[in-house]
Design goal:
The complex is a heterodimer of chains A (134) and B (153). Chain A has 134 residues and is mainly β. Chain A has a domain at 25-72 and 83-124: Immunoglobulin-like. Chain A has no helices and ten strands. Chain A has a five-stranded mixed beta sheet with strand order 1-2-8-6-5, with no helix packed on it. A four-stranded antiparallel beta sheet of chain A has the order 3-4-10-9, with no helix packed on it. Chain A is elongated and about 80 Å long. Chain B has two domains: 2-41; 52-145, Immunoglobulin-like. In chain B, a hairpin with a 2-residue loop joins strand 3 and strand 4 (83-90). The longest helix of chain B has 18 residues, at 19-36. Residues 37-42 of chain B have low confidence and may be disordered. Classes of the chains: A mainly beta (134), B alpha+beta (153). At the A-B interface, strand 3, strand 4 and strand 7 of A face strand 1, strand 2, strand 5 and strand 6 of B.
């Protein structure tokens, strides 16, 4: 097994959309991995600090939005000594080119990673048609 | 012209003897602002993964780090004296043979970071928990380091 490389610190990216947020606070774009196979599209998003009930997934007109609320970590009596990252909500939007079966979306949040499975609509699955001989 | 050739290198032209100082002073201002400046700038970017937030209250020090995708048993948290060491490895499991990636932003790898605490702690009373990808290490301050209220009469 080869040695894995060292993880580097990545600054969190703040959302830079022209649409303003209505609630105060920072909003970050979560890192995502998106991959597909024949039957489904899968999206994995890093959203540490988000609990199951605080994730909102919306699929509307081919636009997928994922949002996660983060409760502030620090207690009220704590004073800062060294702060290296800010906390804030997560939000990201994607335009999907595939046709997705909206009734069969599956989402699971584990260890701060959201796994969203978007099954392709039946008609989008490539079907092999065997040609009978004779 | 003779003087110019002498003093033009590297940047201390005799015409502007204070340029270097001005540049330094501007740089110090920038650094100072970065540390105590405006609302968006109160943090120092971390050089080592993971970025942590170290806070304290009267009884404890708290260290928090965002470590998504890492299970508690893949993490190694140790306390030696006034140093807290957080190390581990993030692995991203392979998702299958016949998949095509459209985007790949998450990273996997090892990490190890030592954080020096500002005061003594009690190693027997350290609690570390991992919730939703956020690690919170709570360390009780040693009795001698806690502030003591002195009554003035």
């Amino acid at each position: 097994m080869t040695d894995s490389k060292e993880l580097q610190v990545k600054t969190k990216h703040e959302v830079t959309t022209p649409a303003e947020q209505t609630k105060p606070g920072l909003v970050f774009t979560p890192d995502v991995d998106i991959f597909e196979d024949e039957r489904r599209l899968t999206l994995l998003a890093d959203m540490p600090g988000v609990a199951n009930e605080d994730v909102k997934i919306d699929l509307n007109d081919g636009v997928l939005s994922i949002a996660g609320e983060v409760k502030p970590f620090e207690g009220a009596d704590e004073s800062d000594v060294l702060i290296e990252f800010d906390t804030g909500r997560y939000y990201r939007q994607f335009t999907l080119s595939e046709v997705i079966d909206q009734n069969r979306l599956e989402a699971k949040l584990e260890d701060g990673v959201l796994r969203l499975i978007l099954p392709k609509a039946e008609k989008a699955i490539p079907r092999r048609i065997t040609v009978a001989a004779g | 012209m003779f003087a110019r050739r002498l003093f033009d290198f590297p940047s201390m032209g005799w015409r502007h003897p204070f340029t270097e100082l001005e540049r330094m002073s501007r740089r110090m201002d920038q650094l100072a602002n970065a540390v105590i400046g405006g609302p968006g700038l109160r943090w120092m970017p971390a050089k080592v993964y993971p970025a942590i937030n170290l806070t304290e209250d009267v009884n404890n020090y708290y260290v928090r780090a965002e470590l998504p995708g890492i299970k508690s048993d893949a993490l190694d948290v140790q306390v030696i004296g006034k140093n807290l060491t957080i190390s581990g490895e993030r692995t991203i499991p392979s998702e299958g043979e016949s998949i095509r990636y459209h985007r790949r932003e998450r990273e996997a790898g090892k990490f190890s970071r030592v954080i020096g605490l500002p005061g003594d702690i009690e190693p027997e009373r350290v609690d570390a928990k991992m919730v939703n990808g956020v690690l919170t290490v709570t360390m009780a301050k040693a009795e001698a380091s806690k502030p003591k209220q002195i009554t003035v009469h």
